[in-house]
Amino acid sequence: MPERIEFLQTAEVRETDLQILEVILYLADGDEQEADRIWREPTNLELIDIFVILSERGTDPETMRWAPLGYLWSRAIQELL
C-alpha cells in the first residue's frame, strides 16, 4: 500500500491531476513501475481506458492536465472513439 501512496503523491511534481494518476495506478493493478510507464508513454488503448474511466466517474477529462500530453490530451482521444 505505501507504493500507491507514493505514486499518488507525485501528482504535483508530475504536473498531472490526481484523478488521472489514480486511474493510471488502477489500470496498472497497483504496479508503480507500470503506472509510471503508462504516465510517460500510454498506448492508444490505455488513453481510451483512462478517458472512459474518468468520464464514468463523473470527471470531465477535458479539464484535466497531464504534463506529457498537455491540457488537450482528451480531445485527441475523442477522435479515436
How would you portray this structure in words?
This protein is an all-alpha fold. The protein has one domain (2-80). 63% of the residues lie in helices and 0% in strands. It contains six helices and no strands. The longest helix is centred in the middle third of the chain and has 13 residues, at 44-56. The termini are far apart.
Structural class: mainly alpha
Q: Enumerate how many helices there are, as a single number.
A: 6
Nearest-integer average pLDDT: 88
* Span between termini: 34 Å
Task: Write down the overall geometry.
Answer: globular
Helix content: 55-70%
The tally of strands reads 0
Helix and strand succession? HHHHHH
The biggest sheet, with number of strands, parallel, antiparallel or mixed sense and barrel status, is:
none
Number of domains: 1
Fraction in beta strands: under 5%
CA-based gyration radius: 12 Å
Oligomer: single chain
The unreliable regions are none
In short, what is this structure?
The protein is mainly α and 81 residues long. The chain is built from six helices and no strands. It has one domain (2-80).
Label this structure with key terms:
single chain; about 80 residues; mainly alpha; 6 helices
